[in-house]
Amino acid sequence: MTVTFTVLLCLGLTLGHGTPVLAGIRPKPILRAKTDSVVSEQTTVTFLCEGTTGAQEYRLYKNGHFRNKKNPPNPKNKAEFSISKIVPQEAGQYTCQYWTHYGWSEHSDALELVVTGAYNKPSLSAQPNPVVTEGGKVTLQCGSKQQYSGFILIKEGPQEESRILDSEYNQSTWQYEGRLPVGPVTSSQRWTFRCYSFRSNSPLVWSDPSDPLELLFSGTLHKPTIKAKPGPVVALGSPMNISCQGTLDAEMCFLHKEGSQQTWGTQTPKEPGNKSTFSIPSVTEDSGGQYRCYCYSSAGWSEPSDTLELVVTGIYDTKPHLAELHSPVVTSGGNMTLQCVSQMVYNKFILTKEDQKFSSSLNSQYIHSTMQYQALFSIDHVTADHTGTFRCYGFYNQTPQLWSVPSEPLEIHISGLSMKPSLLTHQGHILDPGERLTLQCVSDISYDRFALYKVGGADFTQHYGQRTQAGLSLANFTLGYVSSSTAGQYRCYGAHKLSSEWSASSDPLDIMITGQLPDRPSLSVKPNSTVQSGDNVTLLCQSTYTTDTFILSKEGAAHQPQRMKSKPQDREFQAEFPMSAVTSALSGTYRCYRSQDSSPYLLSHASAPVELSVSGPIVSSSPPPSSPLPTAGLEMYLKALIGVSVAFLLLLSILIFLLLQRRHQGKFRKDDQKEIELQHPAGASKPVTRDRGHKKRSNPAAANQEEILYASVEKMKPEDGVKLDSSRPPEEDPQRQTYAQVKDSRLRRAEAVLPSVMSREVPETKEEQAEEGRETDTQAAESEELRDVVYAQLCSRSLRQETAAPPRSQAGEAPEEPTVYAALAVTRPGPLPIKEKQ
């Protein structure tokens, strides 16, 4: 027995030392979560319990209570337990153990499972701000509007750390806060924090995590570039993106709003361009401010980017009004003043341009006369860069990035020095309501587009230009049926296709609408409505209503109507329109209207028409307004007209000169023939004749008679004081038409037609002369075409003048100026040959 017991005892001791299972010593299992022990609601958590080889069963416990068991697969050294869609009630302390043939192992160390998302997230900030210096210190603060027992502050990273912060109420911020000083900090590592809130009755049920807070260092690496899309001025509620582009080796980029105790975002740069994009789905008041971004790499921190100022508009509903004090079309190189005005008490106004390349802010000033606040923005030496759309906003000094809703856009156009177009109206300057109106902008410059502007308005209507066969470019602006809103002063401009600069302004065109004021003025003429040319006339327009200005218009006139300030006279208002030295061009129908200075283009009804009649020389008046020409085109048209007129007159003068020269040369030939005849001896075989074959006559006998003049002079004594001067030879006579000068003042131009001389010899007695006179009278009555020849007979005994009134032409033509022919024979008269009758 003793030996057996001793052997068994030795065997047992040997087993006890070599086999722990038999001795009751089993390894403690290890319990851990496969992902993290801090999980959010509705996620799945997996526990891993690691035991020893040969374990047959694993069990999971929560707060000491059995939850689940698992039979592990081979080699049976571990088991997994999963909980899906976890809820806050699953939070607690978990342990596990396993079973072998030798019994149960010990429980593992407890694993605390934290479930987040049960409460609203707290805030996490760094004071004074998250931008720190090397070796500096900062205070981290967790805060919440809700009451919690405490906060959990976690430093994320390879070596995660957590701290519990007690919650205290801060009356100045009206929230519960927990603070923790951190430092000294270095840039050799990242400092990223989050915090949670919890209640004492469930310390493992936490709130949602706060936004991460990254401590930022201002390093020495190249600064990133920051931009806002669509732009730095964003309307309330609109989405936008802020991009931060760092160097190629940047690992993380951070967005920080100046003055904020938080980082606004953390992004990993993405290709292309190694750019991080921070999206703001809906801009709020908190979005306004100044932003910078920082980038971090293994080499360290970058410099901060340039500041991006993000402005949120539409915070205040009162819209200011923007206007140009003179005209939205400004001459290049000139000055312009933009006025931003509002009834709201804004501290400042800011003026912006659509491309954001221009902005300027000014303090507002209160104007007592208008009871409004305004700011005047003066821009000197404007250039083409100032062309575009401007708006203005109001804001307050304490929130400079929060603006009002914008004013209506004001489009500014720059005009140059190119030739101005002309603005025309085919319907006249004064129209009744309901009439249709079309304004035409026309130029002889090849402008591709035209713009119409109503002075004092904001509209700048543009139309493409059209070319005419006359080489003009024009555009028609149809204003439709006119009303009181149509009244005003208009200008137009021209521009080329590729230019942002407009031409000089056209001359202003006034459009006035009648029937907008009560009463119809009266119009009268002094001294009379019918006057002589050169007289002085006064048109008097009167009204019993209070009137500032009277307007006088002439029916069909192209010029602008005349305006005259009214004067009170005998409980009436009147204006006199004087006209000095009137001409027939002022004849026509006149009407007058009245208007007020507050609305100078709104007129009363027209007065009764007055007809002014000016008698005297007809003076060409200005052309009707239906077809006016532009100013520049009119100048060229007048020049062309003058040139054509001069050319026509010159050509006409040349033709007249040639005709006169030809006629004059014909007279010379006649004179030469006469001179030859004078030198012919008596009884010569060839007669002295005059050839005028270029004139056609219906009577051949008359033609022959008109061709030849014979005057025979014998030795005689002059009678009745008539003297013949033969001292000057024929060639000295400048006219070369007569070869005998009759010196007697009583001698008149002879108009008698003596065709008998052309067919008979010169008579030697008075009886023969009388007989020939009777024959002459008879032939003159038969031939009506002989009106332009005067025959003078000189005989040896007396010089007789015989006249006979030429008969009227059948066609009523005026008689031609008669010509004097005289043939003097120095020898005794002989028989003259008679030409054959045709």
Describe the structure.
- The model is unreliable at 1-24, 619-634 and 678-838 (pLDDT under 50).
- 11% of the residues lie in helices and 40% in strands.
- The protein has 838 residues and is mainly β.
- The protein has 5 helices and 63 strands.
- The protein is elongated, with a radius of gyration of 60 Å.
- The strands form 13 sheets. Strands 22, 24, 25, 27, 28, 29, 31, 33, 34, 37, 38, 39 and 48 form a 13-stranded mixed β-sheet that branches. Strands 41, 43, 44, 47, 49, 51, 53, 54, 57, 58 and 59 form an 11-stranded mixed β-sheet that branches.
- GO terms for molecular function: inhibitory MHC class I receptor activity.
- The chain crosses the membrane at residues 636-660.
Secondary structure topology:
Layout lengths: L1 H17 L1 H4 L6 E4 L4 E3 L4 E6 L6 E6 L2 E6 L7 E6 L8 E9 L2 E2 L6 E6 L6 E5 L3 E2 L5 E7 L5 E7 L4 E6 L1 E3 L4 E8 L9 E8 L2 E5 L6 E2 L1 E2 L7 E5 L3 E3 L4 E6 L6 E6 L5 E5 L7 E6 L8 E9 L2 E2 L6 E9 L4 E4 L4 E3 L4 E7 L5 E6 L5 E5 L1 E3 L4 E8 L8 E9 L2 E6 L5 E6 L6 E4 L4 E2 L4 E8 L5 E6 L5 E5 L1 E2 L5 E9 L6 E8 L5 E2 L6 E9 L4 E5 L3 E3 L4 E7 L5 E6 L7 E4 L1 E3 L2 E8 L8 E9 L2 E6 L5 E6 L15 H48 L21 H8 L16 E2 L15 E2 L23 H17 L6 E3 L27 E3 L17
Parallel strand pairs: 2-9, 11-20, 22-29, 29-38, 31-39, 39-48, 41-49, 49-58, 51-59, 62-63
Antiparallel strand pairs: 1-3, 3-6, 4-5, 4-7, 7-8, 7-9, 10-12, 12-16, 13-14, 13-17, 15-16, 17-18, 17-19, 21-23, 23-26, 24-25, 24-27, 27-28, 27-29, 30-32, 32-36, 33-34, 33-37, 35-36, 37-38, 37-39, 40-42, 42-46, 43-44, 43-47, 45-46, 47-49, 50-52, 52-56, 53-54, 53-57, 55-56, 57-58, 57-59, 60-61
